[in-house]
Design brief:
The radius of gyration is 15 Å and the shape is globular. It has 2 helices and 11 strands; from the N terminus they run ααβββββββββββ. The protein is mainly beta. The strands form 2 sheets. Strands 1, 2, 3, 5, 6, 8 and 9 form a 7-stranded antiparallel β-sheet that branches. A 4-stranded antiparallel β-sheet has the order 7-4-10-11, with no helix packed on it. It has one domain (3-146): Sandwich (Immunoglobulin-like). Strand 2 (26-34) and strand 3 (41-50) form a beta hairpin. The model is unreliable at 12-18 and 151-167 (pLDDT under 50). The chain has helices at 3-10, 12-16, and strands at 20-21, 26-34, 41-50, 56-62, 66-76, 82-86, 91-93, 97-101, 107-113, 122-129, 133-140. It binds copper (II) ion (CU). Copper (II) ion is lined by residues 43, 72, 84, 107, 109.
Length: 167
């Protein structure tokens, strides 16, 4: 049994609920990873579903575990290496579809961690959607989680981010 399954067992009650939903969007399978201790960076991944007939958009995220929380994606730089960039317009969450935040793609970036994120810790993140408003999500830390099929391959510079951007 891998560590994610053990984590699931511990968090079974949470995962069993339709969980982090309001009248608009539904968030499932959230998890966070960090690349170091206090002052370092981390990232949050999840599946966002939009069962409504109205397009929505994730416009921001906030958490007290980091000095700054941003919406990031990966793009190929001139040298072909994937780099992270801030997505100021947010992530579209189309009607009757959704949006995946996953490794090597779109993600919520934690910059300047205010505490180390250890496996099994729960962190609270407040997502703000254009239509659905605020959705508070409890996110388990799972540093051992393997990437999903997509977003693998192609080296990228995630680990080379400046640990604590100045602002
Ligand atoms: Cu990032």
């Amino acid at each position: 049994m891998n560590s994610f399954k053990m984590l699931c067992a511990a968090a079974a009650v949470i995962f069993a609920l339709p969980a982090f939903a309001n009248d608009g969007v539904q968030v499932s399978d959230p998890y966070a990873r960090s690349m170091g201790g206090i002052g370092a960076s981390g990232a949050i991944f999840m599946q966002i579903a939009n069962p409504t007939d109205t397009d929505d958009r994730l416009v921001s995220a906030a958490s007290d575990v980091a000095d700054k929380v941003g919406l990031h994606t990966h793009v190929a730089g001139a040298d072909g290496v994937m780099q992270m960039v801030e997505v100021s317009e947010g992530f579209p969450v189309p009607a009757q579809q959704g949006h995946s935040l996953q490794r090597g793609g779109d993600h919520i970036m934690l910059m300047g961690l205010t505490r180390a994120l250890k496996d099994g810790d729960m962190i609270t993140v407040t997502l703000t959607f254009e239509k659905a408003g605020e959705v508070v999500v409890e996110v388990p830390v799972d540093n051992a989680r393997k990437p999903d099929a997509m977003g693998m391959g192609m080296g990228h510079k995630h680990g080379n981010m400046p640990a604590a951007p100045s602002n």
